[in-house]
Amino acid sequence: MKVLSKTDFIHYLRCPDSLWLKKNKPDKFKNGELSLFLSKLIKEGYEVEEYAKKLFPNGVEVSRNSGIDLTKAILKQNNEVLFQPSFKTQSGAFAIADILKKVDKNSYHLYEVKSSTSVKKDKIHNHLKDVCFQKFVLTECGINISTSNIIHLNEDFIKNGDIDHNELLTIEDVTDDIDAIYSSVVNEINSALNYIDKADNDEDKCSCIHKTRSNHCDSFEYFNKGIPEYSIYQLRIIREKKLNELIDLGCQDLIDVPADFKLNDYQQSQIISITNNKPVIHKNEIKNQLDNLKYPLHFFDYETYSSAVPKVDGLGPHGKLTFQVSIHTLTKEGSLTHCEYLSDKMQIIPDLVQKMKDFTGLTGTFISWHASFEIGRNDEMIALMPQYKDYLSYINANMFDLEIIFKKNYIDYRCKGSSSLKKVLPIICPGFSYDNEEIQDGTTAMEAWGDLMINSKDSNLKDQIRSNLLSYCKKDSKAMVEIHKELSKV
Ligand code: SF4
To answer: Whole-model pTM?
Structure first.
């Protein structure tokens, strides 16, 4: 009999086959690209729990994962509040309740702690189903739950000095919501328990073979062996109906898509690109776009930090602090200069914007990749530092998104339908890569800087992390310079 935790159950709701693989053939199961991001979420969840415990000053710590027997022993002691008691049903469902409060001889209030700023009820994150799972396990173990509650972050909270847990957190009574869905969720839990115990599963295909790429998990290749390197799933934003028409025609390889099959312009260009083994380049459009840019060109990139429980005065839960910038400025004559700033304080300080302003002035065009991100950060900084409104507004009004060219006018099948910088760069500039970088993505940069600010004491290690961060951000802005150079030649 296999154990089903709450996390497993949520996994089952997203995809039974994926959970089956994890439980039955863990060596074949890939944790996925999101694992770093997920581990950050888990860490943040623990931090919110620590604040939630302060709402119950007399609570007794059973201690996470310390065991069902210890929980039973502590339950007998008649404590009013328990933190992290664990329970397991006869059928293998296992739960660690965040907080359990005894209200009378026969009943308890159950509290589930979330690091979000609201109770999520959508298909991907359904907190109510989490609570149903906990209630089911506890009920099966003889604990009568009279109310179910979710403790989450208060979306209006803004940090100002020491954090008051009463202001940081909100308690929502979700008893009625739970009652409304409880019996159907219990059926789902029982189905999940049966599913993971199945000795066999169809491993030759899974239902995502008929679904678009956004539905696929990292087990797609395992379940659907033989999918070509360049496949119909890479047709950018293809609708499921179209995808299945192609499957019905016997096409899986991009190169097999009939020339007269109706697709949108971008998708059509992907087919032309693979057929001719060269990119489809709309030279005039690219030239017009580049000709409209005002020199000097400031290629720039921000790195940001955020945390569920705000660490920075002036920010709320999940608020973003822009801690780093790299700018490469190119003049019309072709000279390239570089400016960078990496904050060494976890606070809103104007130095980053001041350094940018001193370097660029209110001139030229600012170029970023996926500019909505930089525009959003500038808007936030305007609200926090209104003295820089003119400068940051100038940037936003004179921003060019280099990614746009790769969404419309430069289509190479080797980008696999993606216009992300990390996918485009090795295709356009094969000699320029991130391979030697210790930090290779924004989430790692955020984690590294957070560690540098909060945990790192060793000065050699601190220097190394700083150097890695500077190198990574510099590479992002330089990558745009290199791509611009290649586009100027087309
Ligand atoms: S690819 Fe889709 S159906 Fe297949 S295991 Fe992953 S989520 Fe499930």
So the answer is: 0.91
